[in-house]
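Example record

One chain of 409 residues, shown exactly as stored in the release files.
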Amino acid sequence: MPQKTQPAAGRRWILLALVVLIALNLRPFLTAPGPVLTEIVVDTGMGYSSLALLTLLPMMLMGVGAFISPVLQAIIGTRRGILIALLVLAAGSLLRLVAPDGTSLILTAALCGAGVAFIQAAFPGIIKAEFPRNIPVVTGLYSAMLMGGGALGARLTPLLVNHGFGWRSALALLAAPALIAFGAAFFILSDSRSRRPDKTLTGRLLRRPRTWTLILAFGLVNAGYSSVVAWLAPYYQTLGWSNGDSGSLVALMAICQAVAALGLPILARRSIDRRSFLSLTLLMQAVGFAGLAFLPQVAPIVWVGLCGAGLGSSFALAIVTALDHLPRPEEAGVLVALMQGGGFLLASLGPFATAFLHDISGSFAAGWMMHLVCIASVLFLYLRFNPAHYAQAMQVQIEPPPSSVRQGI
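Predicted structure tokens for this chain:
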């Protein structure tokens, strides 16, 4: 591919545009089915446990894929991996057009999750490499657009269905923005200057207790996200809401996620100690989940907005905090990949656990109460993230990679 010719400032703006475009594609496949689950059940006969797999399975693959991603990056390069991943994501969405039954629909969700796994694992390292002085702001933008994509999927799908599109066609249309992102990445990522990660780094990082603390905190928080994405719309439909109105709640949650994911990292950028802001994200989640569990009809917009703001800002700040732990982009990127990998494996259990509690209690409220317990547990983990101890916590004896591995992505 040709070498870069743009001025550094111009190149950064182009990369920012690519961050936005790719991030917008990473959540619609998860949020889009929720508002039209009634139609999916009628056509496929899927039950709650099977429907939970539409979120659980891709989240699990996003977790496993994040562990594998650093190795793949070292072998094929990040640029090539992202291009392949975008095509896999587009294929997963497009195949929903012809999905004949619940099993095939679950397989398309898995395909989408596999594509997203690589992208999510690779992008934080790119951000740290390309925007070293603005990591919180750009990470916040990336997270905000990721959540905004979730809002788009949740709102667009019921809108299309209510205007005559079948649910299969509505879900398949999400392939279009993924293909646009592929075209943009094909040209823009040829200019990147990131290193490929050391193949042995993953094993060394996994021997550090701090890595597992980051994984556990990230997983418990995002279990709440995956449960809300899967069951918020069906929860309010059981309370008498239409699919359009319940889909609007999911979209509102994602919008609040996006705003908070951008805003809180900007507020937190002046200090590397993020603990007070991380605790604030948990407080918002706690109030939101409590409202959903005990007073769902009193102020649903408030409860959903607080859940979204807390979940979105926590996601963004967790990535920033993990990136803070190591100075070099390729090392920090692998740490974030591992945090997301183990975290998403844990988070994937959220929808299943909520469905299980629903079957026992007859209500989704039991699931929201479960997440209150998770939030309380995460608070004790967040309080351990003292930046003065990062160097000691991450002593992995990393050797500088040879200059020969410095590759374009």
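Notes: The two ends are 10 Å apart (CA to CA).
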